[in-house]
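Box S2. Input/output pair 1.
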Amino acid sequence: MIILGISCYYHDSAAAILRDGELIAAAQEERFSRRKHDPGFPRNAIKYCLREARITLNEVDAIAFYDKPFLKFERILETYLAFVPRGILSAWKSLPLWIREKLWISDRIRTELGYEGKLLFPEHHESHAASAFFPSPFTKAGVLTMDGVGEWATSSIGSGEGNRVKLLKELNFPHSLGLLYSAFTYFTGFRVNSGEYKLMGLAPYGEPVYAQQIYDELIDLRPDGSFRLNMAYFDYGAGLKMTSRKFAKLFGGPARKPETAIGKREMDLAASVQVVTEEIMLRMAKHTVELSGSRNLCLAGGVALNCVGNGKLLRSGIVDDIWIQPAAGDAGGAIGAAYVAHYHYYAQQRPTPAGDAMQGSYLGPAFSDEEISMFAEANGCKYRRMPERDLIESTAEALACGEVVGWFQGRMEFGPRALGNRSILGDPRSEVMQKTLNLKIKYRESFRPFAPSVLQEQVSDWFELETESPYMLLVAGVAANHLRKTAPETRGFDKLYELRSDIPAVTHVDNSARIQTVNGRWNPRYHALISSFWGKTGCPVVINTSFNVRGEPIVCTPEDAWRCFMRTKMDRLVMGSLVFLKKDQEKLPETDDWKEEFVLD
């Protein structure tokens, strides 16, 4: 039984393939097209999945698309009609594209792929729920999905047991937690569907002074986590912006223009909407436990990428255990759609879970040493090939000496996080590494935090976390014995320059960190590298940030990695068993023109 899942046409298009219920491969189209959040038809991702599964399209039993286009089109039409005449301009811009490309998905799939087999269309939140429950280690769980909007639903509560996921309750458009958060993302000058994680990272610099105004004016929140938004403050229903003039008046003036200075207002707005979002997540989770009868909780949807909220939920005592789909946004819908087809449509039996079926989310393409060396030889790249032990020891020593290392290994990760196979690594003990990585490697805002990768067996010694966090989706505090005293009166971006812990480069200004735990089963080479670094420094933690520059998708191929390595101030690149030192390479011509290739996020 082979099922191909597809998501596309909104953002983060992707494909995934199941064989007899086992997840064989999954990838986002952006990694191949080099267009971040690529919404287009995922022809390259599909081609990769078929190649990884070693099959042709004729062997696929069904293709499952992650939502119902006609139901979504109905919602869009009804919304425009409800806002006439204000919605006419927005309708004029979007409806022709909808009718031409998005509505006739069946015809588009058959035309693009030449496929004559079965096509299935689960609902959007059904796909999210399936992506959360079926790969989880639970036999029974509550399922909570939260995003911008699917067809009509914006959040849903469900339950999973055996081979079924049931949706029990929904919150419908325009009342959306994801769109509320995106409205503040837009208003603080960041890009919607891309910059929400910046808003989350900005929140600890501010104070939640606007939280009560949000409760009083913007949202009517109920005990079960459901709510209604006051749409007089928002323009996403019918207009071309997220917020209205009334929103701007409430919060002291117009939205910040992108790339301009970030002020106290933006910091406080970020802190305020983050606090409100966390409260809504907690109430929704509590109601999910009540309706599902399970204290295990699975999360998906874009809001499930709010790792600060996830961490607070885990610590709240509302649930006993939590599992979050690492590709929680629309990309993960491809996996969920395939699971719905396998278990709901074809009624296959779900085996008792033996653990986390996402396999560390290492589901993308890999490149052999031979393929990497062929690329290097063809392009005149100078390298040395090392046996495993020497490779690990020399890279750990380089990190300990302050080098920045591009680390390109094994299968590419699925989802928005680099998890040790397409990563840039550094020494978390360094007082300057956070600034160096932001300004000289990633070319992004200096306030952005970096994540620690820590040995699973050492996590509780360094962080206030007693469980696994393999997908970098939980935030927890740095352990008290590793913290240092700071000045309590420090405000705003001045907090950046304080040494807060023994690992300052990964300690955010509220003494927290977005943690990835690394085990030897899923990623033995990365685990060995961190273990070697630990032996040399006494620190079982390294900085892990995605292998890309700002606005660029995470690298996929050796060519992508080489180009990023040479354009930035990385010191060495380790691809497979091959080591490339920057000092050995011929310099690229001095130019910043390449930065124009990528739209800033």
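Box S3. Input/output pair 2.
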Amino acid sequence: MQKNESVTVAIQDIGVNGEGIGRVNGYTLFIKDAVIGDVVEARVTKAKKNYGYARLMKIITPSEHRVEPVCKFARKCGGCQIQEMSYEKQLEFKRNKVLGNLERIGGFSPELLAEVFGPIIGMEKPFGYRNKAQFPFGTDKNGQPITGFYAGRTHDIIANTDCALGVGVNKEILEIVLAFMKKYGVRSYDEKTGEGLIRHVLIRYGFATKEIMVCFVVNKEIADCGDGEKRRNKEASDCRSDENRWEKQASYFSSVDNRWDKEASDCRNGEHQGSMRQTKGSRGSSGWIPHQEVLVEELARIPGMTSITVSPNHRQTNVIMGERYEVLWGQPFITDYIGAVKYQISPLSFYQVNPVQTEKLYGLAMEYADLKGRETVWDLYCGIGTISLFLAQKAGKVYGVEIVPQAVEDARRNAEINGIENAEFYVGKAEEVLPGHYERYEKEHPGERPHADVIVVDPPRKGCDETLLKTMADMRPERIVYVSCDSATLARDLKYLCGRGYEMKKGRVVDQFGMSVHTECVVLIQRKHI
């Protein structure tokens, strides 16, 4: 196969990034925007020895599974890789993808997988499901600010304020921000030059509470303090009135990062550079954005608006959020529910983006954990305690582990607001905290091993570290519940655990991310008794 060669291809599968996969005389081609069942004309753009990439030129025979996309930008945008495939076929593809990885990478037999895995759990409404969206800002060819999403595999922004996967209020918020930027000449951030102010706007929405959060990510390190002595005097007065709260916050954060001690001190001296102010109705006295009081006032009129914040990020990086944030108006968080459990969600919190499906996912985790009320449970990669607190309703004791200090503070606060007293949270890497606990326990209790009835893991895409997997197996919990967002690393990790005394008992795929190739699943493995 040669570059620029035109070929006719029947699409047989979908790749990990949503490309159609077809073969010509045994040679594999990956073709973006092609759907399973299509017969297409494509032009080869890159040819390797055994496979290549091609551009879709014409659909010769459309697949019976091809549908008209809801969003006119579906092909260009990198967010919805398979919106042109019927939702029923998407679900079939996702279940087959998970089972295929478990068979190919994990070595599990098709017969076992057919017995263990139930039907995929799809969505009733596969659009408008995201409770969080991060919109990059840029500039069009006429020098005007734009926002939308990146085109696939690029940082070129497709101007669109009305994403089909997000909630309706996103459009209203973004158009207010764009109009404000045009009126006051506020510039978007330019990745190439490092200049400009507005980098991203983060929007969160509480599906149960209808509360809204807007967070501006700005290309600054500290706020401008150019409004003179009157501003500084007022800021010092505001900070003195909150003295006790700052003493408490500084005490906590100093154990995490000495920077917070300095910020609390600076605030008392009237030179505040960053905070998490919690005064309802405060517009913020720092000048992060020119004329920000106008922008804040207009956004605050939107029904449900609860939190308007700013996160400084002056680094030239692909990381969206800064390391801290300041409240410009309202609260530093919004609240939402998963089942009966209430959660406070800050701009920096990890929280599942699809609350309707998340409740189903966590319901499966609860079912698989099979708690009777006395069990000791370890929840690894616990985030803000979403699964931990869900399980604590029926467990004897839950220990959560998370590497992000702010997330652990959120988890502790969430436990408190729900009146949950049987959950403890530790800051650290799961692959260090649990093995460290195991080693200490063995030294302190010779001849014994630390106990856990159930271990729950919900790792990032890279899966679990082998040191952690070994410790989990050595602790011999009766059940391990593995929640996964990447079926390839899930298969690898389950292969390890099932080679050390465990067997797969149950599994379900849950579609958390309709119109994309991503999915989640939860698997129960149980200890063999010989």
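Caption for Box S3: Residues 227-285 have pLDDT under 50 and may be disordered. Residues 87-104 form the longest helix (18 residues).
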